[in-house]
Specification:
- It is a single chain.
- This protein has eleven helices and 13 strands.
- Strands 3-2-1-4-5-6-11 form a seven-stranded parallel β-sheet, with helices on both faces.
- Helix 1 packs across helix 8 and helix 7 crosses helix 11.
Length: about 325
């Protein structure tokens, strides 16, 4: 088998590529190494992959239609794991066209590549953000997801619809994965684990939105990767070979417990600045993972305290090697 992993220098992409390489698979990693945050972190992630002789990196933008078509034709991938996207809910308020180019146009080039080159299975990243302000809990794949509260969420819902149409029209097996608040070593610096850990260690205040009343189904990166790897081995079948799964911890954590875990791991108390809800945010995420369990026999299981300890330990080591923290374009 030969894998294409888009977003290979990203958080989930790097860990997924590493897992497949450890299994002896051939992996081509694609990323445009944009500067949404400091590319030094992306270079660090790539450095975890490049020593493996079965890994090759291609720097390319997903929106490059000619380049993507040529890559698919030349490489003849058997499997594609499409994880590249412009990330972040709040940044979509600042720079909406970045989401159109990466998440919509980029996904179309991937679908076209799969269509014309007989890819056996496309697994792609969706997001729990498609559930919006869903009042029914836990969130199930059968719930209506027609009320996104951010452009980011709208693009992820659009990706699911695009994949469904290609599965129906061209019989391409596609599987969408709705990720729930992924965290862990080498995670994104625009996410709460990084932002809070950095602030606590520096003795700076942290911004606590919705006065700490948020709940998130935090999911550790190893649990996410295990789900991805198992799902890609089980392509959907039938007249419309399309499937969709939640991957979450099935255990929403209140922000106060999450912050306490960071304080314990850092050995310092956090100074908290309580703020109102931000546009595009949701109050709670909570994954029903029964469909994933039934299909591949797996349920995420890392406890938040253990996962945060692993992240904080990694973060302290990372900071020792960096002249500065990765800069994020988005104003927090």
């Amino acid at each position: 088998m030969k894998y294409l992993i888009t977003g290979a220098a990203g958080f989930i992409g790097m860990h997924t590529a590493k897992r497949l390489l450890d299994q002896g698979e051939e992996v081509v990693g694609l990323d445009n190494l944009n500067d949404y945050y400091d590319p030094a972190l992306k270079e660090y992630r790539l450095a975890q992959l490049t020593p493996d002789p079965n890994f090759r990196f291609v720097k390319m933008d997903l929106a490059d239609r000619v380049g993507m078509a040529a890559l698919f034709k030349t490489e003849q991938f058997t499997h594609v794991i499409h994880l590249a996207a412009q990330a972040g809910v709040r940044y979509s308020l600042e720079n909406p066209f970045a989401y159109v180019d990466s998440n919509l146009v980029g996904t179309m080039t991937v679908l076209e590549g799969c269509r014309h080159n007989l890819v056996q299975h496309l697994v792609y990243a969706s997001s729990s953000s498609v559930y919006g302000m869903n009042a029914k809990i836990p969130f199930s794949e059968t719930d209506q997801v027609d009320n996104p509260v951010s452009l980011y969420a709208a693009t992820k819902k659009a990706n699911e619809l695009m994949a469904h149409s290609y599965s129906k029209l061209y019989k391409i097996p596609t599987t969408g994965l709705r990720f729930f608040t992924v965290y862990g070593p080498a995670g994104r610096p625009d996410m709460a684990p990084w932002l809070f850990t950095e602030a606590v260690l520096k003795g700076e205040p942290i911004k606590v939105f919705n006065h700490g009343q948020m709940e998130r189904d935090f999911t550790y990166i190893d649990d996410i990767v295990e789900g991805i790897v198992r799902v890609q081995q089980e392509p959907p079948e039938g007249d419309i070979p399309y499937s969709l799964f939640n991957i979450g911890n099935n255990q929403p954590i209140q922000l106060s417990r999450f912050i306490q875990a960071i304080e314990t791991s850092c050995g310092k108390q956090a100074e908290k600045t309580m703020l109102a809800m931000q546009p595009g945010d949701v109050e709670r995420t909570y994954a029903d993972t029964s469909r994933l369990e039934e299909k591949v026999g797996y349920k995420p299981q890392m406890e938040i305290e253990d996962g945060i300890t692993k992240f904080v330990d990694w973060y302290k080591t990372w900071q020792l090697t960096q002249p500065h923290s990765p800069k994020i374009k988005l104003k927090h």
